[in-house]
Amino acid sequence: MDPINPWLDPAEVRHLAEQLLRPVTPTRLSAADPGFDSSFVGFTSPESVAAPAPAPAAEPEQQAPAAPPQAPPRETEAPHRKAETNLSAISESPQPPPVAPSRTRFLERIRIFRDWLAKNFHATDIFILDREGKVIFDESGHGRLHFMARNLALASRGSGNIHVKVGPASILEVIPCETPYGRIVLGSIVPEALPANHVQTITEVLIQTASPA
Amino acid sequence: MISIAISSQKGGVGKTTLSINLAHAFARAGLSTLLVDADPQGSVGLSLTRQSRLLSGFYDFLADPAIPMERLIVPTRLETFSLVAAGQASDYEAGNGSSGSHLARVRAFLRNVSARRYDICLIDTAAGLFGVTNDVIASADALILPQQAEPLGIRSVPKLLEGLNRLRIINPRLNVLGVCLTMLQQGLAVSTEAASTLRQLLPEEMLFQTAIPRDEIYIRASAKGLPVGVLEDGGGAETVFDSLRAEVQAKLGKSRHQAHIQPD
Hints:
The complex is a heterodimer of chains A (about 210) and B (about 260).
Chain A: H1 10-21, H2 46-50, H3 106-121, E1 124-129, E2 135-138, H4 143-156, E3 162-167, E4 170-179, E5 182-190, H5 196-210
Antiparallel strand pairs in A: 1-2, 1-5, 3-4, 4-5
Helix pairs in contact in A: 3-5
Chain B: E1 2-6, H1 15-28, E2 33-38, H2 43-48, H3 58-63, E3 73-75, E4 81-84, H4 90-93, H5 103-115, E5 120-125, H6 131-137, E6 142-148, H7 151-155, H8 157-170, E7 175-182, H9 189-201, H10 216-223, H11 235-261
Parallel strand pairs in B: 1-5, 1-6, 2-4, 2-5, 6-7
Antiparallel strand pairs in B: 3-4
Helix pairs in contact in B: 1-11, 5-6
């Protein structure tokens, strides 16, 4: 009887070990390619993907405004300084966001999702990366957070969310999520690591947000 | 200075024995060596001297970085060998603190050690990849992974490797020197099989050729508060750690060479 091998996946162990022996190379971020195929209805141009997220929320029923409100100036403060929040205010059962019409522009849906996430979980510096680690949506302005989230998502190998402490009361919460357009990675700064039921809710809402008509 | 963390996913794998004796081997080879006890259980201190339990140490520095290093560093009879005990603050630090919460202070500690011109700083961490242990690994130059040659120990390897891959994102320069088999019992089939399985599983360069045998001499040595090489009949065990020290130095030299020849 072999007492050890049934517990282990040799290919996985070797892969993990070889990964440790390889030097870690930083990834260059580029927003030029959103990573979605041509059937996706949301994007109009690569430039719109690269633009920072405007702060005001779009109402679910509202179509894209003719003149969108001014985007707030980019935060230069480190994200870990911003998540000091009253934790007791986080709802135990957060309400899902109002359902946006599925053909509402993609970025509008993401903004609605962003507002819901910020309101219910005190999340800040929210960003979303595509399956190649490129930025789809970003309000953090911190490439280092993107890099860290991308690598954490890769290291997790589909085993769920990951979080790391990045400041005295700030956690980088990384939620990889399978959508009809492939794997995307949600990153945000939260005051405390999210419990499993909240992660599940966020994942479901994000899948719904990122799904086509 | 090179800082080397000695860490394991599982407790009781001979981490402290390896740390003390490897540090002693470096010191005997003439390298100025500092052994730091970052295990809240204070195993190095318990092993070496009765009085060291009362000394200020690593966790006191984490609580108050204003403590001068001179108050923390304890010389030994061997001029090249000093140690820093876990300290008094470790009692309430045990198992507490999220990863990252002490990162800056651990790095400040290592900067202070480096400023004192040590060649090698070995850090004996608590078992598991969380809390201060994570912060130590996220700050160290290199890492040695003692792994008990028995089935339960081997089963913990995937989790350990996964955790380390995550930590390397925070510390990309971390040089994983490899896994060192410990408590190997040549006369016990289950132990040699476990060792053999691990050698098949891991890439060759990930495993040290030197394995630490299970031997009552280590128990006698730690009971007397001594590295094993200091015992009258400790010559054989001393050779084992000399061999491990040579392997560590070769790996460090190789990685330094690779770093030099890698293009930017």
